[in-house]
């Protein structure tokens, strides 16, 4: 294990470690306007949502690592206290990347990136028409974390209006994660297309799982089952009853005479198919 003290690392190297390890990160495609009415558009991956009542978001246009300059986005927000956060999907990812170019102040990144300015309802900055979801925000606070290159500037903002493209709405009224086709930022030049990597895990909050500590020791100490496997097994509310296990054994007599390792391997196969109940039955057959 490589153990490092941040104070011993050059800022650029530390920045690389942080962005490579904390990934993928959602992208705040931030539209602002200066006091003279000049629009600006730039993406930031130091970003997330932090509340729903009130709806709060935070993003950070950090000071540049090399030149220790502030971003135009920060300057504009300080002047107007307004911003539109547009989400980025795969259809616009190249244009978003182009807009991150360090153009001189006053240059309109909407025009440079070929994106459409759409008037907002409650704030002055424009929305990105191509973005599937746009959040009009009022800035409630700016937290400055330092004055050296790489220091963050946390812009805390409250959503005062949101706009959602009907094309990304699912039948139940929620946002369809496949239709919205979001992208996220990783380290270096890497991005992640979210819908290509989706998988489902039942939320523990919806059930009271027995926990890994309640799994029989011979299963818990398996040389085959992984930590993720044990997590799935521990997320059940109760084990299959004896009758269900016996019936399963009658249907699959081939499992009964197997070694512990072989039985654990078959259980792992069921877990990979999200069939946790069958996995438990394999493990509990006597």
UniProtKB/TrEMBL annotation:
<dbReference type="GO" id="GO:0016646">
    <property type="term" value="F:oxidoreductase activity, acting on the CH-NH group of donors, NAD or NADP as acceptor"/>
</dbReference>
<comment type="similarity">
    <text>Belongs to the flavoredoxin family.</text>
</comment>
<dbReference type="InterPro" id="IPR012349">
    <property type="entry name" value="Split_barrel_FMN-bd"/>
</dbReference>
<protein>
    <submittedName>
        <fullName>Flavin reductase family protein</fullName>
    </submittedName>
</protein>
<dbReference type="GO" id="GO:0010181">
    <property type="term" value="F:FMN binding"/>
</dbReference>
<dbReference type="InterPro" id="IPR002563">
    <property type="entry name" value="Flavin_Rdtase-like_dom"/>
</dbReference>
<dbReference type="Pfam" id="PF01613">
    <property type="entry name" value="Flavin_Reduct"/>
</dbReference>
<keyword id="KW-0288">FMN</keyword>
<keyword id="KW-0285">Flavoprotein</keyword>
<feature type="domain" description="Flavin reductase like">
    <location>
        <begin position="20"/>
        <end position="178"/>
    </location>
</feature>
């Amino acid at each position: 294990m490589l153990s490092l003290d941040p104070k011993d690392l050059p800022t650029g190297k530390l920045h690389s470690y942080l962005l490579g390890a904390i990934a993928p990160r959602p992208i705040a495609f931030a539209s602002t306007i200066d006091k003279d009415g000049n629009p600006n558009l730039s993406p930031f991956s130091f970003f997330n949502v932090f509340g729903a009542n009130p709806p709060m978001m935070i993003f950070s246009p950090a000071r540049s690592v090399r030149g220790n300059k502030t971003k135009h986005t920060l300057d504009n927000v300080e002047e107007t206290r307004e911003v539109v956060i547009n989400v980025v999907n795969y259809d616009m990812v190249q244009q978003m990347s182009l807009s991150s170019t360090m153009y001189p102040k006053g240059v309109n990144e909407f025009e440079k990136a070929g994106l459409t300015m759409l008037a907002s309802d409650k704030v002055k900055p424009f929305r990105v028409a191509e973005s599937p979801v746009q959040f009009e925000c009022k800035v409630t606070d700016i937290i400055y974390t330092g004055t050296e290159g790489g220091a963050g500037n946390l812009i805390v903002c409250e959503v005062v209006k949101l706009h959602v493209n009907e094309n990304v709405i699912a039948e139940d009224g929620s946002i369809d994660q496949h239709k919205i086709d979001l992208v996220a930022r990783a380290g270096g030049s890497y991005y992640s297309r979210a819908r290509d990597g989706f998988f489902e895990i039942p939320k523990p909050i919806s059930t009271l799982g027995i926990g890994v500590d309640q799994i029989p020791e011979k299963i818990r100490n398996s040389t085959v089952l992984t930590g993720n496997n044990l997590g799935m097994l521990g997320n059940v509310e109760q084990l299959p009853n004896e009758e269900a296990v016996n019936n399963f054994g009658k249907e699959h007599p081939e499992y009964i005479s197997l070694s512990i390792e072989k039985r654990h391997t078959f259980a792992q196969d069921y877990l990979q198919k999200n069939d946790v109940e069958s996995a438990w039955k394999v493990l509990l057959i006597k």
